[in-house]
Amino acid sequence: MLMAAKALLAPVLAGSIESVVANRAEAQRYYGITQFAKIEAQLGWNALGRVCGPAFLVNASRNFIMSSTSFILSPLAFAYYYPQERKSPQSLFWFALGMNVFVGNQVAITQQALWGRSLDYAAQGGGRNISYGAVIRDSLRAEGIGAFYTPAKWFTRVLMNAPAQGTLPWFYNQVLPAGEEPVLAAATSAYRIMGFGALHEQA
């Protein structure tokens, strides 16, 4: 149970932090600076709401899905279900990239589409709070499932996202460890130079 909770908490935190950092800027770019300022003034949100920006929840949902794919689903599936005799840095690279393209982004594109439609909803009347239920119902009524999923939406999302996000498991397992020893050695030297090592030994 503890392992499952930790596995869930990691992508929740990663997705939420990424959205706190990026969602407001993404919404500003979507609207344009002038319109965004007008919508923000109309909404009159508190400081936290302004930091997060409109459509934050669905933005965080998209990031949660992709973080889960990169940090949880891909490594676990590779570790437990990929043939042992075929495991290599190259197979990890392509396996994780395939999981990003054909699993994570199949779901994430629906959240990306919902994010854009939610921003359109928020802009109506000069600025209003988002009702995700209303956005989904209106979109499905107008365009059916194509409002959230089409091959073109999937292909566009993959081109934008897959090269970076899909190779993260390979990067963390094959690239970062190569610099681990020098970084730890430098940190240890700095620690001793500042006198912490001597203090630790005296204690």
Structure description:
The chain is an all-alpha fold and 203 residues long. The protein has one domain. Helices cover 81% and strands 0% of the residues. The chain starts with a helix and ends with a helix.
- Basic shape: globular
Whole-number average pLDDT?
86
The beta-strand count equals 0
Distance between the termini: 38 Å
Protein traits:
203 residues; 10 helices
Task: Indicate the topology.
Layout: H1 2-31, H2 33-43, H3 47-52, H4 56-81, H5 89-123, H6 132-143, H7 151-165, H8 168-175, H9 180-193, H10 196-202
Helix pairs in contact: 1-2, 1-4, 4-5, 5-6, 5-7, 5-8
Describe what is shown at a glance.
The protein has helices spanning 2-31, 33-43, 47-52, 56-81, 89-123, 132-143, 151-165, 168-175, 180-193, 196-202. The protein has 203 residues and is mainly alpha-helical. The chain has one domain (2-202).
